[in-house]
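Course assignment 3, question 2. Fill in each field.
Student: A.L.
Task: Predict the tertiary structure for the chain below.
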Amino acid sequence: MNSFLLYIAQVAVSLIVLYLVYWLFFRKDTFYKLNRFFLITSIIIALLIPAFNFSFDAQQQENVFVVVLDTITISANQSNQMFYENLNIFQGILIAYLTGVFIFSLRFLFELYQILILIRKNRKTKRPGFTIVHLEKKYSPFSFFAYVFINKENSKADELHKILDHELVHVKQAHSLDLILLELLSIFQWFNPAVWLYRKSLKETHEFLADEELINQGYDISAYQKALLNHALGIQLNDITHNFNYSILKRRILMMTKQKTKTSGLLKYLAVLPVLAFLFAGFACSNMAEENPAEELSKAEETKEATMQSTENEVRPQSKPQEEKGEIYTVVEEMPGFKGGKEDLFKYLQENIQYPETAKKDSIQGTVFISFVVGKKGEVENVEILRGVRKDLDQESIRVVSEMPNWEPGKQNGKVVRVMYNLPIKYKLDAK
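Answer field:
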């Protein structure tokens, strides 16, 4: 789960950096086709870069990955603590993130529903390659894939063909595909302000492309601009359609009369290369740092005592003998799976761990830190105490973990690997 949140964060950073490149270097240029290509390609690159794994095993040694589980609480009266009481900060962030995904998914579905209702309820005229939907309400003209929506009553005869030709550019160049991609990205990255800037810039670029196409066909600029002004104040449907949007009309008119960017301006696109190299190197170093066994073991040695005293959820194991365990990492691509999932794992522990009567009698409570390895066949092995409380509590913890049923083994780079888990088991007496 933490790896998923890390991926989401890395994608967000990549989108912000790449959009900043666009805003600094390209947004004022008249290379509209290249700008559209850059905006779409940069989104795809931002989604792919964090997914690359640059780690490698130079010595071909057997790896053991280390994962810290949430604390399981065992009370003296054996009342089972629900798994959800052990929610940590990452789970809370994930719940908030998924809530946003759900809300924006509903928003997207509602926008599609609005368009389908207009298509279904209004008169349609089929033309070669597209369909005109004749609207009754005073909507501003817009298009969506092969559908062009026009209110004929509010259009003068000499302006109607200009508006129609403008929307047909959107249809022929498949601009709606870009908007669908941006809508899906806004669901996935709803919290990222760069996504909304991407949407605005891409829509502007679509309009610039349509304007450029008609002017190249010989349309009079003044008459075309007048037609835009007359149709820019209608009702705007939603964000996944191409509307005659008044908010960017001034910029469109300026770009129509702007001097074309010189061909030498294409050299600015080379500025993207060092940025991409920076992102690749940054994420590569991040991944390799997470998988550097020497650094992790050194850090664990230095902070072990302080960590055990300050937090129970971040305890690291002592380093294992190299010939027995091999290198120790903290990330694995495909985690081992307890049959039934994490909730069933906590249920198993709560139902099987018994608070020792001797510990109850002596009013002993505390947290036992225990480690175990899920082997290549899913077997639980190498069960050890990292830090104990008292012999009876330690032995009970070892007993239940040792009897744990087999897991589904973990994998790294497509190979089955041994994965080490640290499990804090908290024995807690009643308040009385």
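Instructor remarks: The two ends are 38 Å apart (CA to CA). The CA atoms of residues 174 and 333 lie 37 Å apart.
Grade: pending
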